[in-house]
Amino acid sequence: MVHIGADQKVVTADEFDREPTFAELDAIECEMPVITAEVELLDAQIIALDRTPNEVDTRRIRRARRKVLTARLAAANLTTMHIPGVGA
């Protein structure tokens, strides 16, 4: 009896199937305050979409925007540091 089976290529991990490196995880960790601030801004904007924005909603959005700007400024100041394995 002859075994009939499909010829398949060897399955190997693509570049996209790998886990992040420690350098990439460190870069994500440095960007986490910006990501968190942007999520808070998005939450405030979504809350304001569900109803007519009142003074509290306006303050919440303004405060969230300031948080994003502050986090981006802090992240920009951190990029002057050399993080091993990240960037050029």
Q: What is shown here, in short?
A:
The chain has 88 residues and is mainly α. It has helices at 22-49, 55-78.
Largest sheet: none
Low-confidence stretches: none
Radius of gyration: 23 Å
**How many DSSP-defined strands?**
0
Q: How many helices?
A: 2
Net shape = elongated
**Which structural class do you get from the secondary structure elements?**
mainly alpha
Strand content: under 5%
> What is the distance, rounded to the nearest whole angstrom, between the alpha carbons of the first and last residues?
59 Å
- Mean pLDDT over all positions: 83
- Helical fraction equals 55-70%
Strand/helix succession:
HH
Task: Please provide a written account of the structure.
- The radius of gyration is 23 Å and the shape is elongated.
- It has 88 residues and is mainly alpha-helical.
- It has helices spanning 22-49, 55-78.
- It is built from two helices and no strands.
- 59% of the residues lie in helices and 0% in strands.
- Helix 1 (22-49) packs antiparallel against helix 2 (55-78).
Can you tag this structure with a few keywords?
88 residues, mainly alpha, elongated
Record the SSE blueprint:
Elements: H1 22-49, H2 55-78
Helix pairs in contact: 1-2
